[in-house]
Amino acid sequence: EEDEEENFIKNNYIARTLLNEPELPPITWLNWYKEVNWPQATLLCLEPLVALYGLFTTSFMWQTIIFTIIWYFLTGFGITAGYHRLFSHRSYEAKLPLRYFLLILGAGSVQGSAQWWSRGHRAHHRYTDTDLDPYSAHKGIFYSHIGWLLFKPRRKPGLVDISDLTNDKCIQWQHRNYISLAFFMAFVFPTLVCGLGWNDYRGGYFFAGVLRLVFVHHSTFCVNSLAHYLGDAPYDDRRTPRDHFFTALVTLGEGYHNFHHEFPSDYRNALKWFQYDPTKYLIEFFKLIKLANNLKEFPKNEIRKGRYTMAHKELNRFGQTIIWPKDNLNLPIITFEEYQELTKKNDNRLLILIAGFIHDVSHFIDSHPGGRTIIKSYIGKDATVAFYGGIHDHNTAAHNILAMMRVAICKYGGEVEYIKKRLGHIQTPTPIFA
Amino acid sequence: EEDEEENFIKNNYIARTLLNEPELPPITWLNWYKEVNWPQATLLCLEPLVALYGLFTTSFMWQTIIFTIIWYFLTGFGITAGYHRLFSHRSYEAKLPLRYFLLILGAGSVQGSAQWWSRGHRAHHRYTDTDLDPYSAHKGIFYSHIGWLLFKPRRKPGLVDISDLTNDKCIQWQHRNYISLAFFMAFVFPTLVCGLGWNDYRGGYFFAGVLRLVFVHHSTFCVNSLAHYLGDAPYDDRRTPRDHFFTALVTLGEGYHNFHHEFPSDYRNALKWFQYDPTKYLIEFFKLIKLANNLKEFPKNEIRKGRYTMAHKELNRFGQTIIWPKDNLNLPIITFEEYQELTKKNDNRLLILIAGFIHDVSHFIDSHPGGRTIIKSYIGKDATVAFYGGIHDHNTAAHNILAMMRVAICKYGGEVEYIKKRLGHIQTPTPIFA
Ligand code: HEM
Ligand code: HEM
Ligand SMILES: [Fe+2]
Ligand SMILES: [Fe+2]
Ligand SMILES: [Fe+2]
Ligand SMILES: [Fe+2]
């Protein structure tokens, strides 16, 4: 057994790595301030405060409000259509202009460079729910939402291959210029648009800049927190990812996360027309205007297998809440004559023979839809033919109810005199020496 | 075989009866006027015309409109809670005053006496979809809706037991006085209420009397027509009854007809809170005011069995739309060395050994979420450990996709030199005479 354990660890990258690589000590009330990632924590805690201050001190201009919403969607799509579906998952191919466009917008979401983001995200997919997953759902909803950014990670995220990204010029350009790009797109650009456009520099900064950033941040964070807690698992339930409309609504369509983890390089997150996945439509639009191609889809057949398997699991769980007929092997076997004898005893047990089984209908007879009398007249007789259409061709429910009342098996299945006679004949040993 | 056929007919009441009892000839363009049930046909065809005439010649009073709706519900409940669930199905017990109340209201729906109605309805349940069912759905939606009333029935409906009804004083009283009761409740009473109440005799007659009757009639008829065509079969699909919200809406809750045929003596037609079954609530109200008791319910466990079985059927149908891996028995068996040889040939077939099977990944490799290179490096080797967590612990979808690409079985399951050596040793025959 120890051998087996050892063998497993040797052959399992995750087990091996967790065992051999160092881990920082847990965060406690004594050491927490040393473990905080101060630059990130400051940014993430300050931005909602600045946004609140802006909300209370700045007057609203409808143009700014509209631009804020647009800018929320655009920088958000930079993450969902760009960082996530294009760069992390290669779920489609994009022409150069589109790649730059998405990288620049993505920078405006201030979530690190596409290379850094994808490196972590690939580890999240490859090591989902383990300690090599940088935002493992098993560490709690707070940690997977924002905690992993506020504190220094306890471990290096698991090994992943990002050679495609390190060899990509656009990605490298964005990686090198990330800080200035992010600062410009997140704050300078929206301030300028609102300022030069309708002279609302202040609104541009506070609303389209900071407030919008708060929403974009927590929207993306929800994919790591909510999407691993809320909803159901229609494709696979081995791990935590879940599908939910609400998560989709607040994440530009990334909320069908059970599907996404099962089929990560599919450019879609939602398959059904009634599910909300604007990022999918955007990618289809990119294709329409010839900026994207080779949109990847997992084969329908394999997607159905997931649905089928999960539906089967659920149905089996439902089946286990049902009481099924008792095991026939434990029923006593009695002869037809013994059965008749039993029904003559005056002990209020009403026995009826149907299809080889003897049933105790004492508790059922009064609720029989066909009435008490008709069953009563068959007590002690073989009611098989009557039950199967001789008198009434019973529905499926009747057969189910009947099976619940089995108390014995009737030898030879019933009153079959001619079979018994034949058997008797055969069983009489033919004398060898007459 | 002929013997079997004969035996079946002898032992099946329906088959026997259909064979032995006379049937009227089919209705044709030549004989139809002789086959019409003139009194019923006249009533049923005239009433919508009279209602229309009334609609165009009578002014509306809101009191009359309200009373018409109330009278529609009351006389309708006379049928659903009275004729149907109480008298035909004995799904609850009712005190004398309630029995009279329901019988009087039911008469106002002009659908025959409760005894006549229940006799036909019991035959409908016992012989559903056969020619002994007076309004068999297999005779078409027109026939089951109203045709069976317009023409003389082609056969006597199948035998049923109505001794409980013929022994019931209330039922017999209503049966004897049916014509006058019906006339009074359908036309005189609503005319008087509206006339004496707010001096709208004309509206009372045309709206609360005739128009309301048209609606009550076709509402009941829909239970025999629509409810056997429209909707799904969540409890059993051996026969035509179906569940549908729309049918329920137009029939005071009798539209969950698949449930009802499966569990006919249940006082409910609908189980779920979101389903529309006002008749059920009315019966529960009767119980509350102590006019009804012993409300019958089929055991939840047996109801679940129906749902379970049908869900299983549907899931199996879904499973049959899926392409599953090929039968392993037909795969060729090759040795590990042969496998390696094959991968060296330059015929663009990329073969990879995982878990004892050799897979052709030529068409898959470019869409591998983990990239082309990593798979490429395992061509011609045993990738079992890598695929099962040595490098990446693949998700369920990956296992499903993998199984679709099997092209051969690897002898001994893979490169297991020490097993091969051992087997070689054992297989060397020990000489018997040395
Ligand atoms: C002892 C086990 C029995 C069970 C569990 C049972 C159950 C049922 C059930 C659930 C129904 C309503 C559903 C349907 O119409 O198929 C029914 C109806 C009926 N049963 Fe049975 N039954 C039993 C025995 C019998 C026997 C032995 C007879 C006749 C000899 C019989 C005669 C009828 C008739 C005539 C009806 C139709 C009632 C009507 O719709 O008016 N039943 N039974
Ligand atoms: C030949 C059959 C193979 C199939 C059908 C297959 C299928 C898949 C699928 C569906 C995924 C995405 C889902 C998931 O993350 O589990 C995936 C990911 C991955 N596969 Fe495979 N795979 C195969 C072979 C291999 C082999 C032989 C290796 C390594 C030696 C490998 C390494 C990986 C890695 C590292 C990932 C994670 C990619 C990421 O999330 O960045 N695969 N594979
Ligand atoms: Fe995730
Ligand atoms: Fe992802
Ligand atoms: Fe029916
Ligand atoms: Fe019924």
TrEMBL record, chains A, B:
Membrane topology field: Multi-pass membrane protein
Q: Pfam families, from UniProt?
A: Cyt-b5 (PF00173), FA_desaturase (PF00487)
Q: What is its main location?
A: membrane
Please list the coiled coil stretches.
Answer: none
Family matches, as SUPFAM superfamilies: Cytochrome b5-like heme/steroid binding domain (SSF55856)
> Which intervals hold domain Cytochrome b5 heme-binding?
331-427
- Provide a GO CC annotation, any one: endoplasmic reticulum membrane
Molecular function terms in GO for this entry?
heme binding; iron ion binding; stearoyl-CoA 9-desaturase activity
Sequence intervals crossing the membrane: 65-86, 98-117, 178-198
* Superkingdom, natural source: Eukaryota
Q: Which GO terms describe its biological process?
A: unsaturated fatty acid biosynthetic process
Quote the PANTHER family the UniProt record gives. ACYL-COA DESATURASE (PTHR11351), DESATURASE 1, ISOFORM A-RELATED (PTHR11351:SF31)
From the Swiss-Prot or TrEMBL record, give the protein name.
Cytochrome b5 heme-binding domain-containing protein
Q: State the taxonomy lineage.
A: Eukaryota, Metazoa, Spiralia, Gnathifera, Rotifera
